[in-house]
Amino acid sequence: AVRAAADSIVAIARARPQAVMWPAFGLAYRNARAERIDRLAIMLGDPQLQRVDDAADVLLRDNLREAVEAERGTRICRRELWSSLGQINGWQLSAVNWARQQMAGPNEPDSVALHALLAMPAMMASHEVLLRSGMQSGYVVPIAVVDAVVAQLDRLAPADPITSPLVGSLRDRAETPMSQRWISVVRDSVYPAIARYRTFLRSSYRPVARPSGSLSTLPDGRACYASWLREQTSTHVDIDAGMAEARSGYDRLIATIAPLVERLTGQRDVIAGIRQLRSGQSFAFSHRDSILPAYRRVTQLAASRASRVITGVAAESLAVLPYSELEEKADLPPRYISARGGKPAQFLVNLGRRERMSAASAAAHEAYPGHHLQAIAARQVSAGHPAMREMSFGSFGEGWGIYAEELGDEMGLYDTDLSRVGYLIHQSDVFMAFYLDAAFHSKGWTRQMLVDTMMVMAGRTQSNAEAYADRHAATPGQLATYYVGWQSIRSARAAAERILGSRFDARAFNFEVIRDGSIALATLRNKLDTWVARQRRSN
Fold first, then answer.
1. Helix, strand, coil in percent for the chain, rounding step 5
2. Where are the alpha helices (DSSP H) in 475-520?
3. DSSP 478-489
4. What dihedral angle (degrees, nearest 10) is formed by the CA atoms of 286, 287, 288, 289?
């Protein structure tokens, strides 16, 4: 019964209207998915499923239940009507990443990629229909998000199609038949569709968009945020207690950071010092061309030292590449894209972000031992049902990313005061991000309150604080996942160290965390408790 339910999850995930990579925005598809999820909930509610005792099936059952219950809970948000429009996770950025991967290496895009390009106009049209439904019922995105997306569309479709990110390196080999066909589709089909879509956003959608980015301004907004946070974190979060703990943790960490900041900047005012570290010229890369080589060097160093903190996962190819201009202008942080379609995994770096202190911790988070090793381990899962690869839990992924930054410290990656303070400042950002996300969406804080708090307490520049405030608006709960997942892994490790004492093997523990792929936090804790009990018996 568990495996039959898992088969259904796989079928639902793959039941897309077209065999292309674009989101399925049609309401008919979404309604059909909801009906199948409801039937699946009934299957998983069978009391006899409690009798499952095989470890792999228990893991599968618990993950399925969490995924299904969380998805059903977020229906109060009506997110299908609005949440797919965003400057962080919108299709326009997916299109840039997809185009980059199609043009990576010497080979041209194939017929499958061309089919996906041809499907873009229909995808935009179906998205517009969906957004119009949201307009009619009051479920819309914030104005700031609309403006950010329109600006990205401007960069996606510049006046000359040959300079579009959708054409990329094909402009240098435009004489080949595939390149000519590709460029003509972009010019004659995709460009007019983008123009229509952009006009709709500017003229029709923006006038009715939300003035505030807080979910609390939507119908049932606070309940929506609670359910959304549960889905993002795969656990029930006590928002008030979490805010108090995050603020207390932030204060403790700032006290730890203060001596390092003073030593580096001469500032006794720790926030003024952090501001200087974030944006001061003396702590920035000297020129743009030096950024990517620095990230490549530290990534190579991290790869060579990953075996110090984890066993069972071998390094694989990883390309360290710059963001496109469109993504750079969005002020995006470093990002990992897993290998797909024969293309190598990518660690994307924003060359518009010049602070040197972040390079080492970013490499730990995105590459080694972070998301890249996490993705490798997930692909190595042999006994798991394919459904385990279809389910993804945000707090597991981002929690591991922040924990991986701690492992970077154990690897000796932060060998200067500047790299160490960069790692610690990013930790403080994680505490602050949870606090602000909850305050914004649950307590009714305004965008300006978020911007002011990030400038005064986190030393961010105004433009950077505004970019993060808009990220909170565009992706509710996502910035909270880092803190919740990290705390869960840390607490599980502390418990294992306490119980096993000198017998605790950190490298084996770390592998146990990621060896089954993405799993819900409660499932992870149960699995790690079982691992600890097994270690006690074997020793």
1. 70, 5, 25
2. 478-500, 506-514
3. HHHHHHHHHHHH
4. -110
H or E element in which residue 337 lies: strand 335-337
The CA-based dihedral angle spanning residues 331, 252, 398, 358, taken in that order and rounded to the nearest 10 degrees: 40
Number of Cβ within 10 Å of residue 205's Cβ equals: 24
Compute how many other C-beta atoms are within 10 angstroms of the C-beta atom of residue 152.
22
Rounded (10°) CA dihedral 438, 78, 118, 155: -40
Match 């000198």 to its residue by tokens: 502
Task: Identify whether 293 is preceded by a cis peptide bond (ω within 30 of 0).
Answer: no
Residues 17, 22, 25, CA angle at the centre, nearest 5°? 60
Which residue in 526, 391, 525, 481 sits closest to 40, CA to CA?
391
Q: Which residues pair with 284 in a beta bridge?
A: 355
DSSP code of residue 267: -
d(Cα 281, Cα 276) in Å, to the nearest integer? 8
d(CA 447, CA 128): 26
Alpha helices (H) in 109-218, listed in sequence order: 111-137, 143-156, 177-185, 191-200
Alpha helices in 307-416 (DSSP H): 325-329, 359-366, 371-379, 387-390, 394-410
- The angle subtended at Cα 378 by Cα 377 and Cα 379, nearest 5°, is 90
Q: What is the pLDDT along the chain (539 residues), one digit of tens a residue?
A: 898 989 988 888 777 655 457 888 877 778 888 999 999 999 999 998 988 888 888 999 999 999 999 999 999 999 889 988 988 889 998 898 888 888 876 778 888 889 999 999 999 999 999 999 999 998 999 998 999 999 999 999 999 999 999 998 888 887 888 889 999 999 999 999 999 999 999 999 999 999 888 998 888 889 999 999 999 999 999 999 999 999 999 999 999 999 999 999 999 999 999 999 999 899 999 999 999 999 999 999 999 999 999 999 988 999 999 998 888 887 788 999 998 777 789 999 999 999 999 999 999 999 999 999 999 988 876 557 888 888 889 999 999 999 999 999 999 999 999 999 999 999 999 999 999 999 999 998 999 999 999 999 999 999 889 989 988 988 899 999 999 999 999 999 999 999 999 999 999 999 999 999 899 999 999 999 999 999 998 86
DSSP-assigned beta bridge partners for residue 343: 340
What is the 8-class DSSP label of residue 380?
A: T
pTM of the model: 0.87
Tell me the sheet residues that pair with 142: 210
The neighbouring-strand residues paired with 301 are none
Q: Taking the CA atoms of 116, 117, 118 and 121 in sequence, report the sign of the dihedral they define.
A: positive
CA distances from 427 to 69, 233, 459 (A): 31, 18, 14
